[in-house]
Amino acid sequence: MAPAELEQLVEPLRATFRAADFPDLLVGLTAADDAAVYQLNAQQAVVSTVDFFPPVVDDPYDFGAIAAANAMSDIYAMGGEVLFAVNLVAFPDTLDKAILAEILRGGAEKVAEAGAVVVGGHSVNDKEPKYGLAVTGLIAPERVRRKGGAQPGDALILTKPLGVGVITTALKRELAAAEHVAAAVASMKRLNRAAARAADAAGARAMTDITGFGLLGHAQEMARQGATDFRFDLARLPWLPGALEYGRAGAFPGGMGNNARFFGPSVTFAAGIDFLYQDLLFTPETSGGLLVAVPPAGVGTFLGLLPDAAIVGNVVPGTGRIWD
Asked: How much of the chain exceeds pLDDT 70, in percent?
């Protein structure tokens, strides 16, 4: 759903569930974030999220694993660990149930990789398959990482390459090379667990995962909530193999335009930046990496624990704009 529509739909809920009435709700509807956090006691808080979507790849097992990694990513984006998950399934009567079994197997094995357990689920008949998880995690209240909190001088670190959106769209259009799809699938299936642990060790001040709003959309939410500006260095941004090629071929999902319209007024591109890159940076990602604001003293620790991460920009004083 377009971000502008979501804003309108959620606003009445904020009036119904006022933050002042729920003092133990550390993260809720007040400001956009990746998951809800509810404090149980001085040592523990529950982290809760949900995510599901139609297939983005052809292989049922890979689809299940990607959907599970994507759903659990919100727990990691808050700095938590996954405890358990509940399957969410929509599936047509007309398709072989062996396909659904493979989707569920992919999801289950990815949850097991996270050290968690699938405890049940819910299914409905639908014309188009959809799969995902409702996920519950745990975190110490003082270790919660919100989107807001970045400070001028922090480095911006991205933990996975970009380009999943155009590669999966090219796959749907039968344009994608097998090796490019394989690289995108491997990236989407990789858990953000190690990245979250690196962020904690490095004293990260803020982070989010890069999903439906694209890099610039999610970055703008972080910058706005931290009352800072983010500056990205285009030359440092990592791309999956084939991403630029499929972008030039116009393989953009519909969400790109929605993101550009909503977040675009807060983004300033340097003169000479090709429209190709502008569109790519608004393109939705699936199970993308974490974008982390790390103080200078923690950068070495972060990269030592996650050497394939990339420093892609920095935080400067401002009011919530993105400079590229």
From this structure: 100
